[in-house]
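Incident log, support desk, overnight shift.

02:14 A customer reports that sequence design results differ from what the structure should imply. Their input is reproduced verbatim below. On-call engineer (initials T.W.) acknowledged and began investigating.
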């Protein structure tokens, strides 16, 4: 696995954290903290803005979909709504892509 890839690093970190939480058998609360790699700066929104500026709309939506399993429910919804707003401000975004994101937001909001 290429640890230099942002998304793969996030997935690997999530899997490791999830394993720690699952293996906690004594009933105590666990707190999982995801470290940023040295040299990796910014936030998810920064990464999304980079993708949007390069017109990589599919990649931006995929990155947000992946956050569904990492972020808290409300934080995911805020991020997804923000991206949908950003996509709506671009004339060259495929309507099907925006509808996929809107549908995901709707499903998560009902949870």
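02:41 Re-run completed on a clean worker. Output:
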């Amino acid at each position: 696995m290429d640890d230099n890839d942002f998304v793969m690093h996030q997935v690997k970190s999530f899997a490791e954290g999830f394993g720690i939480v699952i293996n906690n058998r004594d009933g105590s609360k666990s707190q999982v903290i995801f470290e940023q790699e040295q040299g990796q700066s910014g936030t998810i929104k920064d990464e999304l803005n980079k993708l949007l500026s390069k017109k990589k709309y599919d990649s931006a939506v995929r990155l947000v979909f992946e956050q569904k399993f990492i972020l808290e429910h409300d934080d995911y919804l805020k991020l997804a709504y923000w991206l949908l707003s950003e996509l709506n401000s671009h004339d060259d975004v495929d309507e099907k892509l925006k509808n996929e994101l809107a549908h995901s937001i709707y499903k998560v909001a009902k949870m």
